[in-house]
Design a protein that fits this description.
alpha/beta, Aspartate Aminotransferase, domain 1, Aspartate Aminotransferase, domain 2, 2 domains, seven-stranded mixed β-sheet, three-stranded antiparallel β-sheet, 9 helices, 14 strands, 34% helix, globular, binds pyridoxal-5'-phosphate
């Protein structure tokens, strides 16, 4: 039996995608082998790869002049690759909106001067801070568009002038329509909203590829190594890329990111509206900054947390435990979470409140 999986990542995938991958598992389109067994240099695999890239370009409406890379090492490797490749002057601005931003900042500090120009640390990252004007001499400004742990997201992008805007979009890529031309570089670990773990997507504006990193920068950590070799300098995460392609085609079949965003807004509203009218559950996050993807919520009595979790699990609603830095619960409701899953969660919460609240 399938459960409703509210995990933050790796996370739920569309059932249609799993069924398709299952049907193609041992014999992909008459090739006589699975995608996992193919040479990444084969014609049949190149087609899978090209289809995934095309679907990504279409879904995100990536304008001309950007390269799409499929890399390994997770979003966490980008924390180092970005300063190593983009910082020609050696100073960049960061916005600190929580745990992942902090990790990006800490890693960048190993190589360059970082200027944290805005932060929401004063209120345990429950809001998105106002971003001041950016010093035009900086190498880039880095933001985390959606904060997976704290459940906040940028609703308006900061205006950076000529300074390249770099974004960690790991937990909300392809969840809402975004103007990609506003970004110079976007990166995302696949395992939140796009597929299984193992691939990191980087969308990078061509002019940034000309910022040559220091000679000592490892070959694998140079964007040009990957852009000049179609992401196949070495063996790419072949199977993950295949599933990402299926997920993106599933998004396009729903009507694209705009249609998926509409469904995401409906799902999130269902949950937030219920929490806001309840005297038992509460959301720690400022209303206008709430994430559509990760919804942390607190029970009035934390002594009931363990009961809530065990009864939810018994009801087929799993992985609702909040991150230790926030406490309480967190429901991650990515693109692939069906509306029925959110409805079932709200019903369960109502029922639990009636019995225990
Ligand atoms: C999960 C996550 C990461 C870390 O991704 P890895 O692929 O595990 O390195 C980074 N940033 C954000 C916003 C995340 O949600």
């Amino acid at each position: 039996m399938r459960v409703f999986n509210f995990a933050a990542g790796p996370a739920v995938l569309p059932e249609d995608v799993l069924a398709k991958a299952g049907a193609e598992m041992s014999d992909y389109k008459g090739s006589g082998m699975s995608v996992m067994e193919m040479s990444h240099r084969s014609k049949v695999y190149q087609q899978i790869f090209d289809t995934a890239e095309e679907a990504l370009r279409k879904a995100l409406q990536i304008p001309e002049g950007y390269k799409v890379l499929f890399l390994q090492g997770g979003a966490s490797t980008q924390f180092a690759m970005i300063p190593l490749n983009l910082a020609t002057k050696g100073k960049a601005a960061y916005v600190n909106t929580g745990a992942w931003s902090k990790k990006a900042i800490e890693e960048a500090k190993r190589y360059i001067d970082t200027d944290v120009i805005a932060s929401s640390a004063d209120k345990n990252f429950t809001y998105i801070p106002e971003v001041p004007a950016v010093d035009q001499s900086l190498d880039y400004l880095h933001i985390t568009t959606n904060n997976t742990i704290f459940g906040t997201k940028f609703s308006r992008l900061p205006n950076t002038g000529n300074v390249p805007l770099v974004a960690d979009m790991s937990s909300n890529i392809a969840s809402e329509v975004m103007d990609m031309s506003r970004f110079a570089l976007v990166y995302a670990g696949a395992q939140k909203n796009l597929g299984p773990a193992g691939a990191t997507i980087v969308v990078i504006r061509d002019d940034l590829l000309e910022r040559a990193p220091k000679e000592i920068t490892p070959t694998m950590l140079r964007y040009t190594t990957h852009s000049e070799n179609g992401s196949m300098f070495n063996t790419p995460p072949c199977y993950t890329i295949y599933i990402i392609g299926l997920v993106l085609e599933w998004i396009l079949a729903q009507g694209g990111v705009a249609a998926v965003e509409k469904a995401n807004r409906e799902k999130a509203a269902m949950l937030y509206d219920f929490i806001d009218q309840s005297g038992f559950y509460s959301s720690p996050v400022r209303k206008e900054d709430r994430s559509l993807m990760n919804v942390p919520f607190i029970l009035a009595d934390s002594a009931l947390d363990a009961d809530f979790l065990s009864q939810a699990t018994a009801a087929g609603l799993v992985n609702l435990k909040g991150h230790r830095s926030v406490g309480g619960m967190r429901a991650s409701i990515y693109n692939a979470m069906p509306k029925e899953g959110v409805a079932a969660l709200v019903d369960f919460m109502k029922d639990f409140e009636k019995k225990r609240g």
